[in-house]
Amino acid sequence: ETGVTQTPRHLVMGMTNKKSLKCEQHLGHNAMYWYKQSAKKPLELMFVYSLEERVENNSVPSRFSPECPNSSHLFLHLHTLQPEDSALYLCASSQESVRGQKLFFGSGTQLSVL
Amino acid sequence: AQSVAQPEDQVNVAEGNPLTVKCTYSVSGNPYLFWYVQYPNRGLQFLLKYITGDNLVKGSYGFEAEFNKSQTSFHLKKPSALVSDSALYFCAVRDGPLNFNKFYFGSGTKLNVKP
Q1: Is any Cβ of chain B less than 8 angstroms from the Cβ of A105?
Q2: How many CB atoms lie within 10 A of CB B2?
Q3: How many beta-carbon pairs below 8 A join chains A and B?
Q4: Which residue, A6, B23, B34, B88, could crosslink B92 as a Cys pair with Cβ 3.0–4.6 Å?
Q5: How far is A41 from chain B (nearest CA, A)?
Q6: Which tens digit of pLDDT belongs to each residue from B15-69?
Q7: Based on the number of CB atoms within 10 Å of its own CB, is A24 exposed (0-12), middle (13-18) or buried (19 or more)?
Q8: What would you report as the CA-atom Rg of chain A, rounded to the nearest whole angstrom?
Q9: Of A42, A27, A38, whose CA–CA distance to A106 is shortest?
């Protein structure tokens, strides 16, 4: 167990639905991330929150909306998604102040958009 | 631009044989290099990292990686493969503390170890 928990593990949604992905880290870290993993592609960094402020937004479409209410929780709100958004969404956390810090990942949410 | 290349989509090796998973990188500053492994239906797990010092880095589960600055490579190696090593392996680079939030990942290499 890595200390980063994601729910749900699987999600199937229609293009008009609204859903949210949840991530919780139990490691006392101060940075949290959303990544998108598609087959045979590099992991795509979507959002980074550092000390609860968004510090990175990699030109992600507005149909993805992140929320970080505190340093332990991260959400990804989804609405009017497209089939090409189907992927594994990974949450990660790290401790910024540590040199050479590594990422700790959750198990991901496998999203299917119909 | 920073990038990571994993030239092989898949590597097949027999159990007991040595394995190598290749990674090359491009980064503007001093590289911080990482290897992660992903088992089915799981997130990525940290294997090892190179920050500075000895070019040969040892990590979890008997894996090691060699940093080669002139070839800008960071290949993952293991002297004797196990069937349980079968998984998806990702190389990643971070371009130092000034952009410490930016990890750049490769596209992954699927390792198949056959009995």
Answers
A1: yes
A2: 16
A3: 56
A4: B34
A5: 4
A6: 999 999 999 999 887 888 999 999 988 889 999 999 888 999 999 999 999 999 9
A7: middle
A8: 13
A9: A27
